[in-house]
Amino acid sequence: MLLAAALVIIPGAIHCGAIQASAQSPKGVMKVAIHLSINAEWFDPSITFPTITGFLPLYLFHDALLKPMPGTLHAPCLAESWTVSQDHKTYEFKLRRDVKFHNGDPLTADDVVFSFQRYKGGAAKVIQSKIEKLEAVNPYLFRVRFKEPFLDFLDYLLPGPGGSTIGWIVPKKYIEKVGDAEYKRHPVGCGPYKFVRFENGLNLVGEAFDGFWRKTPKIKRLEFQTIPEISTRYSMVKRGEVDLALAMVDLYYARVKKDSDLRMVTALSPNGWFIYMASQWDPKSPWSDPRVRQAASLAIDRKTMADIIFPEGGAAGSFGLEGDPDTVVFPPEPYDTEQAKKLLAQAGYPRGLEGGKFYLYGGAMGTIGEMVGNYWKAVGINTDIISPDSSSFLAQRMGGKLKDAVFTEVVGAPTIALRFSFWFGPQSYGNYQDLQAMWAEYNNSLDPKVWRDLIQRIQRVMHDKTMLIPLIKATVPSAAGPRVKGDPFKIREPFPIWVPTPLEDLELSE
């Protein structure tokens, strides 16, 4: 009844190192200046908001049944292999026998059942509503049975908007002993580094876990310091106070490129930036007219935006990652203000229009929205720009509070189907009848050929309607000091991760 996932077993030895290689004891300290604040909520996989910003503590302290690794989306990790029933209702995961949590407890199927039961993060309702039964068949075999076929369940195990962190496993006995609140204060996982210290808004410190199943990390201690000011990050890496400084953009991108003491290492990112026009489903809103949406797209100079904000990223025209075989690749819209004005006139707005509230993604990335607002104003689309902090923006966006607005949106899910599950799922502000019908058919189909046809048709219809406006592709140019050996951003294809990963592979020169 169960079909062996044969292709899964072989990559396990390549990507996750099924046999732990002998290695010298970890040594040295690597210091990294990051441009974002880490949230203690991200220490607990059950509540981690599955954005790329939460990947750092995930890959630092925890491990998953499967996860993106260099060269593959579904690298076998805590699960060395898995099988799927012919009806796609039953999934079995064979667990590794050599995995221990940081407190010494062995990982068993009971921990997996516990992790699935307590999960309440992204896509929790979608996944848990389909679960019929969770079983620890034996200490090293976990089984989940669904009420209905769940063909893309393995994709839902991938982190990112639309996906989840339900497959990142936590210690049942430890959490039952200390409670959820204490667990966030002192997380225990089975990842490459043990928790040492966290100071909100300041730093996060981990120490190498010599019991990590894949390999012993090469660096003894990792210290991540939150440094919002780009000038300070540059000065710190220049003086050798940190070994790696992330997000060297604007003038500092060119400065690092010319600096003989530093090395530019540009991390790729799965994040695509979009304009989401939530008010397009309000017939009284000017955004309900596709000509207005098209004009707004043509009014944006994407190349200039990318050069300033994400050097080496480039303009975006597609909805998914170009490395995803199911993504339909559309060229970026040209920058054509004259055509934008003509479309506005055809829509009945020859003198421009009032576009209502325009919410910017908070923090440093607010610059993206500010530039868009200026481009729109130049062709007659006036908006009331609102710039909350990141936490406030995400709370309002995810809480359905922006129905009468447009806003900047960042989505980094690895597959186009997961991106659609985000845009068409509980986080959606609306949809069109033809798209909704195709999406429902996609979710009810068991034929991979039908799947691919539908997912590509959906993208073409979305593009024709200008339902979303793709903007630019994110990158994180970073300055590496002389002690950093090789590429600290090894997960580049097919799902690039812009935080240094895998952390156990980081190296420092002697």
Describe the structure.
With 510 residues, the protein is of the alpha+beta class. It is built from 17 helices and 19 strands. The strands form four sheets. The chain has a ten-stranded mixed β-sheet, sandwiched between helices. Strands 1-5-6-8-7 form a five-stranded antiparallel β-sheet. Strands 3-4 form a two-stranded antiparallel ribbon. Helix 10 packs antiparallel against helix 12 (337-346) and helix 16 (433-444) packs antiparallel against helix 17. The longest helix has 18 residues, at 448-465. The protein starts with a strand and ends with a strand. Residues 1-22 have low confidence and may be disordered.
CATH homologous superfamily assignment of the largest domain:
Periplasmic binding protein-like II
- Report how far apart the termini are: 53 Å
Could you say what the CATH architecture of the largest domain is?
Answer: 3-Layer(aba) Sandwich
Kindly state the mean pLDDT as a whole number?
Answer: 92
Largest sheet: 10 strands, mixed
Task: Write down the domain tally.
Answer: 2
Quaternary structure: single chain
Give me the CATH fold name of the largest domain.
D-Maltodextrin-Binding Protein, domain 2
Poorly predicted segments: 1-22
Q: Taking Cα atoms only, what radius of gyration do you get, to the nearest Å?
A: 23 Å
Category from helices, strands and their pairing: alpha+beta
**What gross morphology would you assign?**
globular
Write the SSE topology.
Layout: E1 2-4, H1 6-15, E2 29-34, H2 55-61, E3 66-69, E4 72-76, E5 79-85, E6 90-95, H3 109-118, H4 124-130, E7 131-138, E8 141-146, H5 153-156, H6 172-178, H7 180-185, E9 193-199, E10 203-208, E11 221-226, H8 230-239, E12 244-245, H9 251-258, E13 263-277, H10 290-298, H11 302-309, H12 337-346, E14 353-359, H13 366-379, E15 381-386, H14 390-398, E16 405-411, H15 416-423, H16 433-444, H17 448-465, E17 468-480, E18 484-485, E19 507-508
Parallel strand pairs: 2-11, 2-12, 14-15, 14-16
Antiparallel strand pairs: 1-5, 3-4, 5-6, 6-8, 7-8, 9-10, 10-11, 12-17, 13-16, 13-17, 18-19
